[in-house]
What we know:
By secondary structure, the protein is mainly α.
Amino acid sequence: MNQKELREQENRCIQEQAPACSAACPVHVDVRGMTAAIAKGNFDDAQELYRKSIPFPQIISRICDQPCQKTCLRKDLGGAIEIAALERACLDFGGRDFPAVKQLARKSVDRRGDHHCHQCLHRSRYVLAWTT
């Protein structure tokens, strides 16, 4: 691949629209922002961006079926970017493992769906008490 072909491929991926990998992701992880932070060696910021999208990042990063790699524009040019490996790296090398818990109120969450649990974790307002 020569320099001109490389620049053309780069222009396809850095347009202002969401990259194909972020669009294919069910939770729309900010892949562009996360990879930019990792490229600068800032795993803390990458981890923060990843945690904003994912309810249980340590689990999801390991069981994800990687729809982003199937739509990566680089897959025909020597292989797709290993987004799942980058996600695991930002969790392994970035800041704290778990968000700080503020015990403001107690809320019971039944098992009807993960949406309520995600909302509680995302807002960091509740200590969860699971019921059956």
